[in-house]
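Service request form, structural biology core

Requester: graduate student, group of Dr. S.
Request type: structure prediction, single chain
Budget code: on file
Notes: please return the result as structure tokens.

Sequence provided:
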Amino acid sequence: MLLGGTLVLASVSPLWAQDPFDLPKRPSGPYEIRGVVVDGKTGEPLPEVELSFQENAQPAGAPFEIIQSDASGNFRVANLAEGKYTIRASRQGYAPQAYLQHENFWTGIAVGPGKDSLHVRFPMSPSATIVGQVTSEIGEAVRGATVTLWMEQIENGVRSVTQSETANTDDQGRYRLEHLLPGKYSVSVHAMPWYSRYAGPRTEAGVAYLPDMVYPTLFYPNTRDWHGMEWISLRPGQVEAADFHLLPEPSAHLQIQISEEPEARSNLALTSELPGGTSNTVEFSSVNVSAGVMEISGIAAGHYRIQGQRENLRQDLDVAGTTQMTLDAPVAGGTTIRGSIQVADGDPQPGFGILQLQDANGHTYLAQFHRDSGDAAHPAVSFEFENLPAESQVYEVSIVQPQDLVVRTIEANDAKVFGTTFAVDGQHEPSLVITVSQVSTAITGIVMKQGKPLAGAMVLLMPQNAKDSERLVRRDQSDSDGTFRLAPLLPGKYLLVALEHGWELEWSRPEVLQPFLKKALRLEINEKPIETVSLEVQ
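Core staff response, request fulfilled:
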């Protein structure tokens, strides 16, 4: 079952906290859910766990009941209607989590005739913690330093590095990052010397200014290059220390030749590269503009990107000591493709979404489309792609969001259309009219293991042709009765597999998934739903 919203792990406060007298109406019936909450590491029962219950039809909404497990970890909710239910749990020392949660998926509890909902075993993973202290070159505490937590994880079949959360050091230079699920983490720290605001080799009004020094950003364990940072493998309940010792170095200075136009000197940002392909705006101690030169000081030597308000005004450079540069003229704009979206007869008009163009080399370009204000009786849904390469090219058109829309036809001025693709000559700026329609095709089925339904398996549907867009991939997690549902689906030929430990696999890599595809079920999706598919888990 797909989770309706991402669980925030930075707090033990439950996401569903609300006025207990304002809960949705209970789905009344003769069934019940019974179970026990246990420590996922030791198997010991957990008392006083806060449990919320929701109908799967409204997984992102409010729960209809909130209870606590008893002294033996047991819980019970009676008088329920037939259906499926989501259980979420929260307890001090444990990260908030849904039942058998993986990424943004979880397992729903099936309730009804022939369904076993009386023996639910909910394992909660104890929170892990990273603690540390940040000290200066003379061993003093560095207060107010920004500590960033990085997480290595497999999401959507891809191993990636993401920023998880941040914290600041206290008066003793200490920090604490807690409520962490087991996994691989690393930490970085950024701070400015307390005296940086007084930096400068000069004396004014009898005040001696301190040396112009900075602390470079450090990654665990005390390396300046994030490519060399090490990972901490946290087990359930583990507490790991990661200390930092900051050493100051002379500040680098960046002198930028700019024009006297106000636009040239404003809206300039200096950024540095961070793990996972991200970047952040660099903090510096001072900026001074004089005689057509903007000088930025209070930054560490390193590689940076300077960027204007417009995306096509950017330059990469290495800064050390005093570095001088001149901003290049903005790159000439490329082709702009505009258009509108209309719907097939009888389908509702989309109010918002994301349109994608993909060229023959696999490069993709995204644009939002939205309903224009104005004529309420005949609202238009428009889009615009800017700064496309000014060259002849063939583009394939697809809808990224919402997922239940599919491109049916394209009409174009100044472009040649071939089905759902069109060709531009690089000299004209074409306008398009794209007709879309909704699709509601679904696959429902059950995952089996040795003749019995299996809960918590990853169900993966992907195109038979590996060159097809990843937008066609669908996933689900089997519920307590082994059932799953994949929707909406676009027409095409697919492979369907169920993986018991798929959440731990980089399944987006062909060499990883290939052994499982030998036993995949081959399906052709059209306008009709496919029901009661049975899959043996691998």
